[in-house]
Design goal:
138 residues, AhpD-like
């Protein structure tokens, strides 16, 4: 695990290392956004979500990202987060076909409107990979 900054807590460094695994360059963007909001936001939000939960050993990162896609899709209120986690999932080895199947499953349990929003996010994530050439199909 790499260290991003010796001036921040080990917990936040762990969180940022996981975020870097999900998408190269994401730690800097997210850290700036949260620091611009409040000096403690990054440690509280990223520390909890990534260092305390996502870093746990019980479920691998690929599976966690698939679960995250399903939950954010079902919520239907976090389009930016959903698109990010679809890209992150692909960076972790989730295929387009797996994302499509997740979205189709969402239509059954969360409804067609939630699935339609997820389709929009998926198309953006797929376009990102088709134009960047970074797609990781499994």
């Amino acid at each position: 695990m790499s260290t991003f900054n010796s001036e921040i807590s080990p917990r936040l460094n762990r969180a940022l290392a996981i975020l870097e695994q999900l998408e190269s360059g994401a730690p800097e963007r997210v850290l700036k956004n949260l620091n611009d909001f409040h000096k403690d936001a990054a440690d509280l939000i990223l520390g909890f979500s990534f260092a305390d939960i996502v870093a746990r050993d019980g479920i691998d990162l690929k599976t966690r990202e698939m679960m995250t896609i399903a939950m954010l899709s079902a919520m239907g209120t976090a389009a930016g987060q959903l698109e990010f986690h679809m890209r992150a999932a692909m960076n972790c080895g989730v295929s387009r076909e797996e994302i499509i199947e997740i979205v189709l499953q969402v239509s059954v349990y969360a409804g067609v409107p939630a699935a339609m929003n997820a389709i929009t996010a998926a198309k953006k994530a797929f376009l990102h990979f088709s134009t960047s050439g970074d797609e990781h199909e499994s």
